[in-house]
Amino acid sequence: MKAKNRTAAIVASSLAASSLIASCASSPSGTETPQSWLSYEAPSRTTVYKFDFGGAGAADGFTAAGADDAYSKEKGFGFRNTAGVRNVESAGEAEKADAVEWIDDGKGMKSENTFAVDLDSGIYEITVTAGGPMFRESVAAEGFFHVMDLTGGVNGTETWQMPVTDGQLDILVTAGKKDTRYALSSLEIAKVETEKSAPAVWLCGDSTVCAYYKLPDDAETFQYGRNGWGQHLGKYINPKWQVRNLATGGQFARGFYTSGQHESVMAYIKPGDYYIIAIGINDKTYSNESEYYETLCAMIDETRAKGAVPVLVYQQGRAQDVGKNLESRWFGPKMQEVAAEKGVKLVNLFKIAGDYYESIGADGTMALYAPKDVKDASKGTDTMHLSPALADTLAQFVAREIPELRE
């Protein structure tokens, strides 16, 4: 299929998805926006700090923070170990033109090689912007992951809310992918006028759920690249919820549980939060059915112990499944068993997406999966990963199945 024909097929299939979803009474893409969404007012925010990392000074409105700026109580901010960071150039303009790169000390998320900022206790909104020419990084705060696989080069940005209770915020940047470099161009901190963080939807998942960021050499063809449905979910639920997507490519249940991702969720999840566990595609490769079962049960039990709500998502199939009448994929039946035993809500995205794929046919389905080469869609289809259009559609399906998030 040529690139222009593929584009037409994606548009046609996306329209079909909108039509299909709009036919459902609880449709997230219906014409009426819930009144609760319209009446929502975000708490006010007051900027406390805007740090411009790197050695070229500060852009207007920012405070300079170079690799040689050691922490001091008098200053109220700085690097705890200036030997563990260095100034580098970056690909943007103004505060994004340079960055500070962290040097790997082998300690990962638990490294003490942090940038420390003195803050009064309270709820803060943290915004980080990736730096460097072609870096991949995960960002931790207070010893736990908050952002996974942020991309430098075109200055990927993420924002989250968190409490600061000990008078200081410690920010750490670690590798987003093995053997990649990592840096930040800027850090912005705003005090949120509220007593607790916004309710959150936490995501456990793999490459079909995680967030993707533009890379410098594919910015013009990114529409042919990959997305995870998790990065679209926020558009289809009440804006009072913050989506905390800790999914990463290639991940499996036990890996998510032991690598610090699940630990980070448990550190900050609150009563009333939701924890959507959409994982299983890679488990047959890296794990086994027994370990998968045990891990899901542990995640559910720990979530409930925190007063939060677990939701399991039986993941969608592959592009070539259309017409094969498959009853299951991955460890889906085992996830269904866990859901029944634990009394947990199960979103059967395998069936929901499968029914949709049947409705648009094999060609329409194939057109909605990502290409093998993001720079040349004519090279064929990656039958596992999602195009932005399909990721958006699956996000709508998931939102529709959890109406509590839309109230």
UniProtKB/TrEMBL annotation:
Q: Name one GO molecular function term.
A: hydrolase activity, acting on ester bonds
Signal sequence residues:
1-24
Q: Which UniProt keywords apply?
A: Hydrolase, Signal
Domain of life, source organism: Bacteria
Keyword presence, RNA-binding: no
Query: Which InterPro entries does this UniProt record tie to the protein?
Result: AGA-YXIM_GBD, Galactose-bd-like_sf, RhgT-like, SGNH_hydro, SGNH_hydro_sf
The UniProt family comment states: Belongs to the 'GDSL' lipolytic enzyme family.
Instruction: List the protein's name.
Output: Lipolytic enzyme, G-D-S-L
Q: Which organism is it from?
A: Treponema saccharophilum DSM 2985
